[in-house]
Each structure stands twice: as structure tokens, then as C-alpha cells.
Amino acid sequence: MASQIHLIRHAESVHNVSKDFSQLDPSLTSLGFEQAANLDQSFPFAGRVGVIITSPLRRAIQTTLAAFPSILDKRYFDPSSRDGVENGASLVIDPLLQERSALACDTGSDRAILEKAFPRLNFEGLGKGWPSKTDIFAVDDEVVHERAQRVRRGLVELSEQLSDGEKRDIVIVTHGVFMKFLTEEPEIDLPKAS
Q: Which residues pair with 90 in a beta bridge?
């Protein structure tokens, strides 16, 4: 049986409300955390998820952790929180999933800042200087199409790796504009945290 890929848009973040796009890598709002927590209660495929892949922008990571504490492995959470499950889904931080624009709100934090904010997560996939909007992270359409194509190829490979297991589904947590490139559906516009 093939993997199903579940595409999730991050929950409401500060810049979505304030319209202040100059804030670097903004966090979720209180409503955003609530939206993500509601997703934990309503996501019907929890037992089938083997891997969750998220953008390294703060709002996507926060959405992932708040939305999937009953799916993700407990190693990603503080032991005193009682979040996470034994032999839960793996979490991958993938810079290819970052948002398309070069605005400060769509530019990620340095790796050291993320490691301090989320000490139980693995940021080894973020190369030095990853948040720059150059090379594969540039914002022009041609480069973003190539980045989305790389993600799709990686998903095919991951799906093949998971195909024999009980937990073969994949969750992607990303951003509204990049999602259009990833799905090759320019009209897609999922609500936040759905």
C-alpha cells in the first residue's frame, strides 16, 4: 500500500494578524497555538503517520509540535510535558519547505537560535547560512519550482522506504505560497492549521 501525504499549512502567526512583515521569523499567535492543538484532536490518520517533515520557520515548527504531540516520538518533547509517544513518528526539519518570499517574516532564524528555542530537535539539515534567500532558496519562480520538485522527489523516495511499514503516511507542514508550488496547483489556499 502506498503512502498518503498530508499537506498542512502552518497555523496563524503574528505577522498574519499584525500585517507587520518586517518581523524576522515570527511565532504563532495564541489563536495559532489553539488552531494547531485543535488539529491534534481532529487529524484522523494519526496511527498511520511515520514521518512529519516541517519547514524550519518558527511558525511551522510550533505548528508541528502543537498539532502532533500524540503522533511524534516523545524524544522531541520535554519529558515533563508528557507529550509525544513511544516509537512515534520521526520529525525532519527541511529547509526546502520554507516560504517563497524574501520578506523578513518569511526568512528563517539562524540555526543557533532555533537550537536554543527547540533544544530537542535536530537541525543538522540546516547548512550554515541556510536562511539566506540565495541559490536553491532564492525567490524567483524558476528556483522555487526546482525546490518544489526536489521536495516531491524526496517524498517519492521516502514513500518507498515507508511502504512496507504500518506507519507509512507522511505529513508536510509548510507555507501557503510554497504549497502552491509543491502541489503544482496555483489556486490551492488551505486555511491555517488544516
A: 51
